[in-house]
Amino acid sequence: MLCTRGAWFPRDRKPLKHTLVLIPGLLCDSALWQPQLSDLADIADFFVVDVTGHESIGDMAASVLRDSPWKEFTLAGLSMGGYVAQEIVRQAPQRVKKLALLDTRSRAELPEETERRKALMKLAQSGRNFTPVTSRMLPLLVHPSRVKDAPLVKVIREMAERTGIEAYIRQQNAIIARPDYRPLLPTIASPTLVLCGRQDRLTSLDNSEQMVAAIPNAKLAVIEECGHMSTLERPEEVNRALREWLGAT
């Protein structure tokens, strides 16, 4: 069943205990969460958000709050999805029962990061597809041992192609302009999981450690031998952490 913005995965029975909103990262779609949709289907109903049509992190968050099929929900976001998740908590904390921030961070953009983004945006606009962009990004996205993992690389490349250049440019500009969420962290009351791949080169583990130290009811999960795309790289370990998080009171 499709919702206005995003894919809804309900059950043909009464709702399960957990209503889980999932937010993809930059150049990603529901395929980012496919291992979780499969493995956690016994304990959760899902709404996978589409945030490709918005110009800012604030607008992305507002669209999730508007289009979610549930008034209250558990919430998980990876990378850019983590920025959106934090903005959702800022806009409507009463609606978020539990929060999971995967391979993301809370601080604002640094100038050198913006320069790298602008170079990738220029590269994307110069071609007809995302092959040059994904080829340049892959060593940063996944653990070194997975750079030539054909099935994993195929999923990443196909998500990028489905997202498209125009949405990619919008997302990158939104990320560049995102606010600093560090002042928000001490106010988060929801039980929070902060998860990071040990070898994440884009949102490194020290960012996650700082977030856990600032959020009152937070737990850190470190996924070994894993880069930035944790849900796809190490789904069993990520699913185990998410299942424990969902079961926590």
Structure notes:
This protein has 249 residues and is an alpha/beta fold. The chain has one domain: Alpha/Beta hydrolase fold, catalytic domain (Rossmann fold, 3-Layer(aba) Sandwich), CATH 3.40.50. Helix content is 43%, strand content 16%. The protein contains ten helices and seven strands. α8 links the parallel β6 (192-197) and β7 (218-223). α4 runs antiparallel to α7 (165-176). 42% of the residues are buried. Residues 1-5 have low confidence and may be disordered.
For CATH, the homologous superfamily is named as Alpha/Beta hydrolase fold, catalytic domain
Beta-strand portion reads 15-25%
CATH topology, what is it called? Rossmann fold
Largest sheet: 7 strands, mixed
Taken together, the total number of domains comes to: 1
Spans of 5+ residues with little confidence (pLDDT < 50)?
A: 1-5
- Compute the gyration radius: what is it? 17 Å
Average of the residue pLDDT scores: 93
Q: What is the share of helical residues?
A: 40-55%
Strand order of the largest sheet: 1-3-2-4-5-6-7
Any idea what the shape is? Answer: globular
Termini gap: 30 Å
Order of helices and strands: EEHEHEHEHHHHEHEHH
Question: Would you identify the CATH architecture?
Answer: 3-Layer(aba) Sandwich
Q: Number of helical runs?
A: 10
Give the arrangement of secondary structure elements.
Layout: E1 7-9, E2 18-23, H1 34-39, E3 44-48, H2 57-67, E4 73-78, H3 80-91, E5 96-102, H4 111-125, H5 131-141, H6 150-163, H7 165-176, E6 192-197, H8 205-214, E7 218-223, H9 230-233, H10 235-247
Parallel strand pairs: 2-3, 2-4, 4-5, 5-6, 6-7
Antiparallel strand pairs: 1-3
